[in-house]
Specification:
Four copies of one chain form a homotetramer. Chain A is built from eleven helices and eleven strands. By secondary structure, chain A is α/β, with parallel strands linked by helices. Chain A has two domains: 274 residues, Aldolase class I (TIM Barrel), CATH 3.20.20.70; 37 residues. Chain A has an eight-stranded parallel beta barrel, surrounded by six helices.
């Protein structure tokens, strides 16, 4: 697959004019998975890889609920040097093992130029965290890594700076960059960050790169993940990256913002409906065989009726959209291969 | 109608716990219109009232496309003293005249304590602009005005401050306050403001007051109004206030952010689909008899297929939802009267 | 005195080029007092007027320590409607009474267009608070009030917006506008606001209006008032407005940021030294006959040696500078009268 | 020299209470130079090392005007991958060569964990740029580098986060950390960043680490460097890092904010006066043998009279302070050695 077509050299300049959707060039992650195509893609999993059992359980639930990629941090950037810094190499091996069990591609963060080669051996998508968005040597190294890069917007980065950070990766030889809006730092303190929802249509208009959203870090609160995820899909995001944990209260990092499995199932149902309302679909949404359906106590949760309606609609949508999704994927694959 | 039930004294404290939706207390605007109930309500119209013809044309289009209230500025807060300051009293009279022609309730801004009594004679909803969110004498006067108040969040106001501003109105005797998120000021310069989409679920959780969104001022760009509107409804907003102008390029204020009639029709179709996907409906969405349907060139526009799908779905939704909407309205009316 | 010289119509455009200092046009407050001339002017007093005794004691101490104007709030803008709102009319009368006792000109806030005429009867300088910087009807009314206006920068106002707010006053007939930097709202939470120290030289370069600084609101912490005041004078501010209270711990508003009398004496000593180092002087710094000089415990306080050095230097400076100050004042008076 | 006294392990906790000045623990850079002691220390030089001649000329002028350290970038973090990225290794060698010529210690930036060992061979102080303040692997590596670290505050970093970043260096074995305030990102666009002047006294109170200020990046405008530098020293900064270039208009980076030699001489004169006014001194201010003293045209420049006064005062101050400075240095050296 050639990705060096000269017209894609500059991320900041879309290769086609007109309809924004059409001008997004999907990024291929695996032979059967692209991000930035017709389907909404969801990556989910625990903030930190804490052990095999919790990771496998998370992966299985994410997959059953319709998630496509498994996220999990092995190397963790933490504000304090005394906080849990991740399992490192051991975490990478756990991710690889769970991928073998589930078939789910893995997205994980890389923080150090010296780690890039090793993490690239394991991960399917290399994540650059918000704090490293302008770590230029790291970006340059990722340009040579041969794996797709999920580039998170810095908490105080202007959109123009995010695009130039993407340029560092692209200019160094790697066009497979996926942008991620994850909230910016403002004066508001009731949320951890302020999700810049406008960034989605702006980035879609300014560049051909796919744009996904991290509603977990944006709000920093589990009760906000669902409404922010719905908003992100409605605004045109190509996907989400969401933190899910078997028992968020015991998580070794970001305990406040990780979803329970039940909450994640609700989220997948909710975004399936929003995707359908905007003529898209969540990729291969496989309804969870055993929907836990435990009533959540947070205020933003969907009502029982909403969930039932969602499930019914989802069932219909799935039948209708799956054919279309497969056709679109086929077309995209051809388009990319032809490039 | 009594609104002085003691449990509603403090806006900052919801009267009920649990599901956020249920805890919103609808604000009655007219005998047949509430904001904050089951239906999504849209107020739209020109930024400034510039004359009778443009106002009537705007109102008729807004109404045909499914908008419920007519917005239009008579007294305009402008950053420069040399900019157009609105038609003032003449603008008020034009608003009253167009209401007579169309039956649409009017929302218009009041900036000065000395204007409150006069504007309250004409307007159905009194708007407090973002710059006046902490104009405490004005808020107190609006507490005595006897009309619902649309309180816009200040560009640098924390959510806690918005709630305390609402308290000024409520503590002075007027519980009919509708909150409006319209974007906050951040370091990002590619948009006029940054829509704080998280504010919607946070405000819904923190208070019983209805929450609407102004996607026009949030982005300051016509091409962002649609995606921001879709996101706002998906995140749970009770409605929108949108700027629409017969010919935005000639507008005497906010030319960059006002929608054409065709764009507004697209927006109404789009939010109808999102509302349906979240088990709500746009109030009485009356399809425009003559949909201009001119293809818009901006990148965020919906594709033709999406629009067609939207129209079909809308037709079905309307039938299904209208009954429910009327029932809900009836229940709400009873609930409010009983309070 | 004519203030309608056409060259001063636009605040945003300095009337002279070159040296910033020379291009500031002093604003006359009383026949013997200008702000924006050679001397550094300090206004100080309690946040709120709480009673006669505390106000008189504050005024006497401020005057003894070298302060020129008495500040004190009669009408208080408070974030919560349940907080102390000021003594109102009674507060105005107390201010007038203390002025009679001390001869100190008074600066106090006006919040409502309906109050302007009454407050202008009493006050020597009418203050517009940060929350009202874009209360355009109030600004217009102040253009007709016949008294100098102290215009505080809004917490999220760009400098260009502050200048256009000043334009509202000027365009309505009042050129006696004094700008005040009092901190802007940022993401930093360890201080109440972030003093934008750069605003001082920028405003001095962009306009001919005097610029003073409010170090009390900027930091919101008593221990930061001294270093911020020193920085402001070093950066070229024409003066300060500082909160001082006989017993800050009992203050009915802003208890955390008001200085004790001893701290205020330290501040006056400190800025006298900085003013001298930049070839200026604090206006008529009259050493307090009974300097309390109680060692303060906060970390930013000046050491005993510094204070002694300050006093000695002050004594010399006073002799040397007073003649110059009087000469400058005379020249300025002539210049203004001639305009 | 032992720096491992356990009481200094946590930067965030000052080791002594009371007077802030006393609680700063000086950081030793060379046997004869500490930062954070009685004297104000100035590092200056070009943004980027562009060649030998320009670097030597800059160093000689900085030294003659009273600067102590030479700054110059060899590895440059640039927002765009297409901008000049610095001379790299060649730049390091030029820095070493000029140090040999002038005896000036060198401060230069390191961006990549893989560069730390090499840069530490050459530089006397290793600078962490604002974009890398939370590059945790880099901070950890600097903990093992054996050279003092100049840690710049990130553009959107809270003070608490800056202190925790310093902790990363300290916790990894290196207590010689110097903090640098260089402006934060706010909504204001008239300056490149907003200098958070309050950060100086806050950091001095919260930690024992020295605090210096970068007025060049803070404002991003050459005309603001002088007033910001004066403000920084007045607020208690332990020193400055300033960009100076033989011909700023031709600079390959940051052309707008670099000072000419004449402007730098003015700056040194100005801060000498402010330092004296706060009972400190600029370290060994050696008056330039050939002071260019060309009148600068920018608005913030000091008047001729101010400069003359500055020079006279400087001469006196130098005599008076130098003895004291040497005594203080001796005491500090003893204190550090004893630790």
């Amino acid at each position: 697959m050639s990705q060096s077509a000269p017209e894609y050299t500059l991320a900041a300049h879309p290769t086609t004019v007109g309809d924004a959707r059409a001008s997004t060039k999907p990024v291929r992650v695996t032979p059967t998975l692209v991000i930035g195509g017709h389907d909404v893609i969801v990556a989910a999993g625990p903030c930190s890889v804490e052990g095999y059992d919790m990771l496998l359980a998370s992966a299985r639930h994410v997959q059953a609920a319709g998630g496509t990629l498994l996220r999990g941090g092995a190397f963790k950037p933490r504000t304090s040097p005394y906080a849990f810094q991740g399992l490192g190499e051991e975490g990478l091996l756990l991710l690889a093992s769970v991928r073998e069990q589930t078939g789910m591609p893995i997205v994980t963060e890389v923080m150090d130029t010296r780690q890039v080669a090793r993490v690239a051996q394991i991960a399917d998508v290399l994540q650059v965290g918000a704090r490293n968005m302008q770590n230029f040597p790291l970006l340059a190294e990722l340009g040579r890594a041969g794996k797709p890069v999920l580039l998170k917007r810095g908490a105080s980065a202007r959109i123009s700076e995010l695009l130039l950070a993407a340029e560092y990766v692209i200019a160094n030889g790697n066009e497979r960059v996926i942008l991620c809006e994850r909230g910016i730092r403002t004066f508001e303190t009731i949320t951890r960050n302020t999700l810049d929802i406008s960034a989605i249509p702006v980035l879609k208009a300014e560049t051909h790169l796919p744009v996904i959203v991290d509603p977990s870090h944006a709000g920093g609160r589990a009760d906000l993940v669902l409404p922010l995820a719905l908003a992100a899909i409605a605004a045109g995001a190509d996907g989400l990256i969401v933190e899910v944990h078997p028992d968020p209260s015991t998580a070794r990092s970001d305990a406040d913002q990780q979803l329970t499995f039940a909450q994640f199932t609700d989220l997948m149902h909710g975004i399936s409906l929003i995707a359908a309302a905007t003529n898209r679909a969540v990729r291969k949404p496989i309804p969870s065989p055993v929907v836990p359906n435990i009533a959540t106590s947070d205020g933003a949760a969907m009502s029982h009726d909403t969930r039932r309606l969602a499930e019914e609609t989802l069932a219909e949508e799935t039948l209708a959209e799956e054919t279309l999704a497969e056709e679109t994927l086929a077309e995209e694959t051809l388009a990319v291969v032809a490039a």
